[in-house]
Specification:
The protein is an alpha+beta fold and 730 residues long. The strands form six sheets. Strands 1, 2, 3, 4, 5 and 6 form a six-stranded mixed β-sheet that branches. The chain has a five-stranded mixed β-sheet with strand order 17-18-19-21-20, with helices on both faces. The protein is elongated. The two termini are 52 Å apart. The mean pLDDT is 84.
Length: 730
């Protein structure tokens, strides 16, 4: 299946206009110098074929006949290194001395001279005349050879001619014929197509670009020991693949691993040992799609990007979210493939292989993106898979180091995301360990840790949803069912009170106690809460003491005055997420309270307007248990929350209450957007599958508490009666 898909990808590239893919029998090699000859075969000069890439000078790639040769004497048509073309020894390898280089040059010369009459090309003949006349001892006259002969060289005949000798039609046709003239090639059904055809003895070209493998390349299929042979079959005859098909899949894979738009690395590092632990992932589709071009954005960047890149990634993430809802996706039914590779000496190990359609992968990635969504800083860049993996690494020299990422964990994370399966359990353990090592948040470094804790909280949320089957929301959920969540909230409130009372301190509540409270909240939280009541809350200014006490009271009510003594690993993740979301809430609401931009209700909620205070008090008099600005339920309109929500026994019994008090064009436009979002959500004034919407409109009439109470009583009673009638009819 893998080889078949790669062969199809080769055929797709070969059919593209102006394709530069290597045909069977040819390969792409790094050419750093050109031997320029006169038509009579005499030497004109040596030309530099290097190009500037970034700050480095690199050799240009050219398609040449044949494949990479062995370390033995093994000449190739019209190209090779300095020892073959000029008889110069390799200065990097003492084994390749002058005698060795001379043997290679003579073999290269004899190979071309013996075939001159078959090629019938004047430029090929000029090369043969040069080889017969060249003396390697003359090379000292050309000082530039030391600098430009680091890679391979080719021949060119004539001044001002761009065409190399191996690209001439007669020479190219001869080389294609030579590629198929391998003696005694057995025939067998190919594993790729099933057709009986000549079988490749070796699978070429070598595949480069896999991190941790040899720079000269490696192979997916190879046999170099008798122990690997069976039924008397040698070399790659043990895995029968047609000669052309072997070239196609190797060339296609080599192009993928060399293309930064179709390849990413996870794990590994700068040292050789760390690079050997890396994983290389490539992907492609049977037809050109925008999805394969954009996928690298979701997986790849690990450092800060420019704003244009961030905007492009954000747009791609939004389209992935739309794929979950069944939005039309371009080329949805096109087959899509993802291959994971890791180095294994001269071979490549297949880490994993996934295939499906563009739609299937987009939906899986969309669920992953949705699970990661959490309230955070507005300037936070999208959480790519590389950033996610880096959060599992232990910090080194002030930040996470890719060398400390487990390659097994990195591969398992990518597999779970792309396959839509639960995340590896070790992901939770690694993130919790990172939190314990660094502290989830440090007020002394508020600017630095905001993005870091956002990423860790997003990972915890995604893990808990997919693996723990625990409902976690984008925003703070004051009615969450998990006690561990409220334990985290409680610690966040205590840290907030300390910071507002004392400012930044060297050894605060978080730095000293976060790890121990996360593991044993029952032992620590009561003691910390008493300390805050005595030492921190009385020192707060303005409305903050009342606000903090209201938060602590509501959290203790949610805990039912019973704090768990110990938390297991999964519950510690819930604790940390509750801590983060409460901290995000306090950063916004606490600031508004301190500036007297929030108003307190009789129930202890801090609302946006005095009109909402009166509405809340009226609901309390009716003995209606409400939630103010419940967790966002209107995602289609952006960040939109119900003013008040009264939960019913079932989802369809919920009441959503909106209070309208302003009458400006901007306010009215926002309300229409919110009303449409309610309708899309499934809550209307006449009733819907998600509940009933109650609109209290005071934009044109003065507020009257008695009128409000009567209106609420009538509408709530009517909603309850209607729901009862519908139940009886059903």
């Amino acid at each position: 299946m893998i080889l078949n898909a790669l062969v199809k990808y080769y055929d797709r590239l070969a059919d593209e206009e102006n394709s530069d893919i290597a045909p069977p029998g040819f390969s792409r090699q790094k050419v750093s110098f050109v031997v320029v000859l006169n038509p009579d075969g005499s030497l004109h000069d040596f030309h530099d074929n290097m190009q500037v890439s970034g700050v480095r000078s690199v050799a240009r790639e050219r398609i040449v006949p044949g494949y990479s040769y062995t370390n033995d004497v093994d000449p190739r048509p019209l190209w090779g290194n300095r020892s073959y073309l000029l008889g110069l020894p390799d200065t990097k390898d003492p084994k390749h001395n002058a005698l060795w280089a001379l043997r290679r040059f003579e073999a290269f010369r004899d190979w071309h001279v013996d075939r001159e009459h078959k090629v019938n090309d004047q430029c090929f003949s000029a090369v043969c005349r040069f080889l017969k006349a060249w003396n390697p001892k003359e090379a000292f006259r050309f000082s530039q050879l030391t600098q430009i002969t680091r890679n391979f060289g080719v021949f060119r005949v004539g001044l001002g001619v761009a065409e190399c000798v191996h690209d001439r039609p007669n020479v190219r046709a001869f080389c294609l014929t030579q590629a198929g003239e391998e003696a005694d090639v057995p025939k067998a059904p190919s594993l790729v197509s099933g057709e009986v055809q000549p079988i490749a003895r070796k699978h070429d070209p070598w595949i480069k670009g896999v991190r941790g493998s040899k720079t000269s390349g490696a192979k997916v299929v190879s046999f170099d020991d008798e122990a690997f042979c069976s039924y008397g079959k040698l070399k790659s005859y043990n895995a029968p693949v047609g000669i052309d098909e072997a070239h196609k899949y190797c060339e296609a894979l080599d192009l993928l691993t060399g293309d930064s738009r179709r390849r990413i690395y996870l794990g590994g590092g700068k040292t050789e040992e760390a690079r050997k632990r890396a994983s290389t992932f490539v992907w492609w589709s049977e037809r050109p799609t925008s999805f394969e071009d954009e996928l690298v954005g979701l997986i790849g960047p690990g450092t800060a990007e420019d704003q244009q890149t961030v905007d492009r990634l954000s747009g791609f993430f939004k389209r992935l979210r739309g794929a979950i809802a069944g939005d039309c996706l371009e080329d949805a039914d096109v087959p899509f493939y993802i291959l994971g590779l890791s180095p294994n000496g001269p071979r490549l190990s297949v880490r994993f292989w996934l295939h499906g359609t563009v739609k299937e992968f987009a939906e899986r990635l969309g669920h992953h993106v949705a699970d990661l969504e959490i309230d955070g800083p507005a300037d936070t860049p999208p959480l790519t898979l590389r950033r996610l993996v880096l959060e599992t690494a232990r910090p080194k020299n002030g930040g996470p180091d890719e060398e400390n990422v487990s390659p097994l964990l990195a591969g398992a994370i990518l597999r779970s995301v792309l396959a839509g399966t639960p995340y590896p359990t070790s992901l939770l353990a690694a993130v919790i360990q990172r939190i314990r090592a660094e502290g989830f948040a440090d007020p002394e470094k508020r600017r630095d840790w905001r993005h870091a804790i956002y990423r860790r909280a997003a990972i915890l949320k995604a893990f808990l949803i997919r693996n723990g089957r625990i409902q976690m929301d984008v925003y703070l959920n004051k009615t969450h069912k998990e006690k561990a969540y409220h334990c985290g909230r409680l610690l966040a409130v205590l840290a907030f009170a300390q910071e507002k009372a004392l400012g930044t301190v060297n050894s605060g509540v978080i730095r000293r106690n976060f790890g121990s409270v996360m593991a044993m909240p029952g032992l620590m939280l009561g003691r910390l809460q008493k300390a805050a009541e005595v030492g921190h809350i009385p020192k707060l200014d303005g409305d903050l003491p009342v606000f903090v006490r209201d938060e602590l009271k509501s959290i203790n009510v949610a805990l039912e005055d019973s704090i768990p003594a110990h938390l297991d690993l999964l519950s510690q993740g819930v604790f940390a997420l509750g801590f983060y979301q409460q901290l995000q809430y306090l950063d916004f609401i606490g600031e508004q309270v301190s500036k007297r931009r929030r108003y307190r209700t009789a129930q202890g909620d801090w609302v946006r307007s005095k009109l909402e205070v009166r509405t809340a008090n009226a609901l309390a008099k009716l003995n209606l248990i409400y939630v103010y600005e419940a967790v966002a339920v209107l995602p289609s309109a952006g960040e939109r929350w119900p003013d008040f929500c009264v939960r019913g026994n079932n989802e369809g019994d919920d009441l959503y209450i909106e209070v309208l008090g302003m009458d400006t064009p901007e306010y009215n436009d926002r309300w229409e957007l919110k009303r449409n979002a309610y309708e899309e959500f499934g809550a209307t004034e006449s009733g819907g599958r998600r509940g009933r919407l109650i609109v209290l409109d005071f934009r044109k009439s003065p507020f009257d508490e008695l009128v409000l109470a009567n209106a609420l009583r009538a509408r709530v009673t009517h909603s309850a009666e209607t729901t009862q009638e519908e139940t009886e009819r059903n």
